[in-house]
């Protein structure tokens, strides 16, 4: 049921995630809280990047949004309506929200031609004019002329072409939202830019909304309007791409940025250890055992070291200004989007 | 002194469709203590080149030129000597190798095995001591010797793979895409480890990656391959920031500088696909994709030429006052 005043074409978010938690029961009785209260919203024709290390919950978030994982609590709304898990409703929903996976070679059946791969969606959803749809989607995905590709098999295509076929398969059912899990990380460097440019073009031409799950901050800088940084099942910082990447507030975001090879003049903060275990979430701020600001005494000097270790932080709202979940009061923000212009 | 030297190495696969030249004349050298990066797209010949270093190429491949490990030609030495050189003098961490640990053997046992095989003086006790030292060197607690692979994370497994490559104290370590499957933070840790090891042991380390930006910050020098040849070689940071070859410039641009206004909403790519090794274009093999191509590029096959101190590049524009 859509609420009054909220229509399809309204400026409200296309997809909303509210206080979403997903707990997996683990062996040995330990429950893993993969998502622990996540708020997220994606507007029409908006590109949102979810970034974080393995185990931060970004993939579980993507899978929950596709209805592949049932949340333990919380709600997912598409155009204002809560996601229904009844078979028929879910099937309809999955026409609107499509998935593009990391590895196109694994995602394509080696014995299916390009035509068959792209026609599968329209066939499942009983959409008419299959050949026309397939040709149109291939052209939209940049495989032109489509006739040249219809009868080819995945092994006859380059990595970039394969990923375009996967994208065409998603486009063939005319989705409103595409969830892309690391869409370029298995591709060659030279192909990467071409695929990212395609995603930007699809947003412009088709009004597609994109949720890109990635650990690649350069990708986010290239295409995302907003960034959501996740750590251990929570959003720890969110805001516009310019704000988050140019003025990161959370020590975790700063550490992530400092190990990006292209950024100079930031002393590299290599966090010790890997993303900790979602079955053993630390008390207080969940980042505190690895936090450089706590380790170097910054937090103690600000008189909040005990808070870091023991006081739970609030959950960030889905939209609004640049926000970070950190006890440490961030330095006042510079005027927004003060980009480095000397390089241009 | 060069611990690894390649002199005019060619590698050609015989196939039913005729010969496929995968490596077409590569000259490279790596000194002890040096970290060399090797970059290029899939199919550029970098993995074939690595195979030739340990003479691991399939029977269908013919290798010409010299592959010298510690001054000895790997391609012509006796099998007996080759068995000692593999692992003892040069070791490779293959791409995706972290999945090749034996799932039902403890880490310690897998590390002890090559020591006992290669070092006739080693006893189970000295080998176990050595393993403890190696684990410490790659930053893993000694207790992980008793762990099974499934108990370790991806980054920890990659550390075990590096320890495994170090078991017989080689002079040369080649790591093929050592960080591709790993997270950013873990990636940085593993690269730091490789550089540290090269320095401490005076080993020559070769890191292969398609991510030029990773190589630029980690390596001393970087070589970029295209269609079976090195097309540019030089000090890492200089090559990344001021590439002379148009292909290398495109690769460097593929990874944006965060905060730089011009790359915002403007991902830079390189149109087209790399050529098939059996159907190389005439002239410079890159010319069909090159934005700076001129008429002579389709006919003149340019070889590496000097492009500044310690730098070479294979492009007609280099040394001609352009680029």
Strand order of the largest sheet of chain A: 6-7-8-3-9-10-11
- What is the overall number of helices of chain A? 14
Sheet of most strands of chain A? 7 strands, mixed
As a percent range, the share of helical residues of chain B equals 25-40%
CATH architecture of the largest domain in chain B: 3-Layer(aba) Sandwich
Account of the 3D structure:
The complex is a heterodimer of chains A (344) and B (323). Chain A is an alpha/beta fold. Helix content of chain A is 33%, strand content 19%. Chain A has a domain of 228 residues: 3-Layer(aba) Sandwich (Rossmann fold), CATH 3.40.50. Chain A contains 14 helices and 11 strands. A 7-stranded mixed beta sheet of chain A has the order 6-7-8-3-9-10-11, with helices on both faces. In chain A, a hairpin with a 5-residue loop joins strand 1 and strand 2. Chain A is globular. Chain A starts with 14 loop residues before the first strand and ends in a 20-residue tail after the last strand. In chain A, 49% of the residues are buried. Chain B is α/β, with parallel strands linked by helices. Chain B folds into 2 domains: 188 residues, P-loop containing nucleotide triphosphate hydrolases (Rossmann fold), CATH 3.40.50; 61 residues, no CATH class. Chain B is built from 9 helices and 12 strands. Chain B has an 8-stranded mixed beta sheet with strand order 6-7-8-3-9-10-12-11, sandwiched between helices. In chain B, helix 4 packs across helix 5 and helix 5 packs parallel to helix 6. Chain B is globular, with a radius of gyration of 21 Å. The two termini of chain B are 33 Å apart. At the A-B interface, helix 7, helix 8, helix 9, helix 10 and helix 11 of A face helix 5, helix 6, helix 7 and helix 9 of B.
Short synopsis of the structure:
Chain A is α/β, with parallel strands linked by helices and 344 residues long. Chain A contains 14 helices and eleven strands.
């Amino acid at each position: 049921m859509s609420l009054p005043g909220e229509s399809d074409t309204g400026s409200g978010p296309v997809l909303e995630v509210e206080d979403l938690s997903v707990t997996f029961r683990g062996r040995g009785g330990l429950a893993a809280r993969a998502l622990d209260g996540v708020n997220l919203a994606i507007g029409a024709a908006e590109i949102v990047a979810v970034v974080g290390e393995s185990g931060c919950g970004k993939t579980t978030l993507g899978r929950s949004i596709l209805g592949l994982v049932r949340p333990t609590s919380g709600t997912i709304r598409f155009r204002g309506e809560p996601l229904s898990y009844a078979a028929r409703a879910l099937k309809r929903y999955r026409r609107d929200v499509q998935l593009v996976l990391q590895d196109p070679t694994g995602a394509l059946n080696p014995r299916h031609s390009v035509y068959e791969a792209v026609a599968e969606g329209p066939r499942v959803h009983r959409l008419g004019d299959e050949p026309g749809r397939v040709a149109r989607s291939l052209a939209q995905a940049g495989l032109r002329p489509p006739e040249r590709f219809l009868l080819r098999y995945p092994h006859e295509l380059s990595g970039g072409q394969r990923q375009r076929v996967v994208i065409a398969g998603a486009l063939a059912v005319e989705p409103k939202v595409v969830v892309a899990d690391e869409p370029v990380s298995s591709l060659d460097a030279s192909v990467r830019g071409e695929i990212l440019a395609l995603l930007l073009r699809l947003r412009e031409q088709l009004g597609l909304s994109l949720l890109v799950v990635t650990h690649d901050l350069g990708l986010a800088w290239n295409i995302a309007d907003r960034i959501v940084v996740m750590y251990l099942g929570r959003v720890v910082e969110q805001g516009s791409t310019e704000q988050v990447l140019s003025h990161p507030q959370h020590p975790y975001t700063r550490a992530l940025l400092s190990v990006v090879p292209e950024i100079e003049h930031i002393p590299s903060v290599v966090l010790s250890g890997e993303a900790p275990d979602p079955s053993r979430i630390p008390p207080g701020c969940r980042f505190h055992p690895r936090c450089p600001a706590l380790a170097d005494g910054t937090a103690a000097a600000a008189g909040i070291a005990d808070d870091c270790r023991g006081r739970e932080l609030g959950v960030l709202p889905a939209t609004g200004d640049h926000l970070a979940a950190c006890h440490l009061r961030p330095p006042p923000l510079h005027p927004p989007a003060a980009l480095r212009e000397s390089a241009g | 002194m060069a611990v690894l030297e390649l002199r005019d190495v060619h590698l050609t696969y015989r196939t039913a469709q005729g010969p496929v030249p995968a490596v077409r004349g590569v000259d490279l050298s790596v000194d002890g203590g040096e970290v060399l990066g090797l970059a290029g797209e899939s199919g550029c010949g970098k993995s074939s080149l690595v195979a030739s270093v340990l003479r691991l190429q399939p029977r269908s491949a013919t290798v010409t030129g010299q592959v010298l490990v510690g001054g000895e030609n790997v391609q012509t030495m006796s099998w007996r000597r080759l068995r000692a050189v593999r692992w003892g003098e040069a070791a490779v961490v293959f791409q995706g190798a972290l999945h090749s640990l034996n799932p039902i053997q403890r880490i310690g046992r897998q590390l002890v095995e090559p020591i006992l095989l290669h070092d006739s003086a080693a006893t189970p006790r000295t080998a176990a001591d050595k393993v403890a030292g190696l684990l410490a060197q790659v930053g893993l607690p000694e207790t992980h010797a008793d762990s099974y692979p499934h108990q370790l994370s991806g980054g920890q497994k990659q550390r075990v793979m590096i320890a495994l490559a170090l078991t017989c104290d080689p002079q040369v370590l080649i790591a093929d895409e050592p960080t591709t499957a790993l997270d950013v933070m873990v990636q940085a840790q593993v690269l730091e480890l490789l550089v540290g090891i090269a320095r401490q042991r005076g080993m020559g380390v070769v890191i292969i990656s398609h991510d030029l930006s990773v190589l630029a910050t980690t390596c001393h020098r970087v070589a970029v391959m295209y269609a079976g040849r090195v097309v540019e070689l030089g000090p890492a940071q200089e090559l990344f920031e001021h590439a002379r070859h148009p292909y290398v410039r495109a690769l460097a641009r593929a990874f944006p500088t965060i905060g730089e206004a011009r790359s915002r909403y403007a991902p830079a790519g390189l149109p087209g696909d790399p050529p098939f090794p059996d159907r190389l274009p005439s002239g410079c093999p890159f010319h069909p994709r090159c934005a700076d191509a001129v008429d002579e590029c389709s006919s003149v096959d340019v070889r590496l030429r000097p492009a500044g101190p310690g730098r070479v590049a294979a492009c007609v524009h280099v040394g001609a006052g352009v680029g």
